[in-house]
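Problem 12. The chain below contains 243 residues. Write out its predicted structure in token notation.
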Amino acid sequence: MSRIERSKTALIWACTIVAAVLTVAAGAALRGKSYIVVSVLLVIYAMVPFFASFEQRRPQARELITVAVMVALAVAARTAFIWLPHFKPMAAIVMVAGVALGPSAGFVVGAFAALASSFIFGLGPWTPWQMLSFGMCGLVFGALAKGGIIPCDEWSWKARVAVAVGGGAFVLLVAGPILDTSSVFLMLSSITPEGVVAVYLAGVPVNAMQAVATGLTLALVGDPILERLSRLRKKFAWRMDAR
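Solution.
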């Protein structure tokens, strides 16, 4: 990353932090139900640096098309099981995209897949939380692959099991609770420890079902999808996320 790019990144982070502080201050001054608006704005602020990071790499047209295809595949994965409540393997597709294409591309795939699928399942103040949650799936697994913890070309059966278990655990313990946090702000008339605990406990069965869907999808189709993405990356000599 050049000095100019580092300066731009630092400026974006600084502006995001300032905007977050001002938003929290304004919410505290207004009181009432302003915390709902404040929470949604803070989530949006949290995603801005990741979108900016992807844009600063100036991705090629082929990369953008691949990202768009992965977004469509993730949306299809969520929509295909609309008949089975809470069994949504979308996070698994996003994780594979992050492993193959890099952290920032993985975040973009997850965020836009959540946004696009919300036009089918319903848009609302919870949508930014969904974008952040699924974006984190792509970001974290992309970072793990970039760090050499997850193979980014081909998975052995042991790697499949490990990634499947890790993916399910991430959905159960991180991605799911992020979505439950939106329910804390949107459902409770007043935020109390008892109410917060009740909301998170109510979300455990849903998160567990999502975790099972994610683990099964990673174990069964994660490697074939990764293999095809790896072929594209090698064929066109892409340097996704400076990999």
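Discussion. The mean pLDDT is 84. Students who got a different answer should revisit the alignment rule from Section 12.3.
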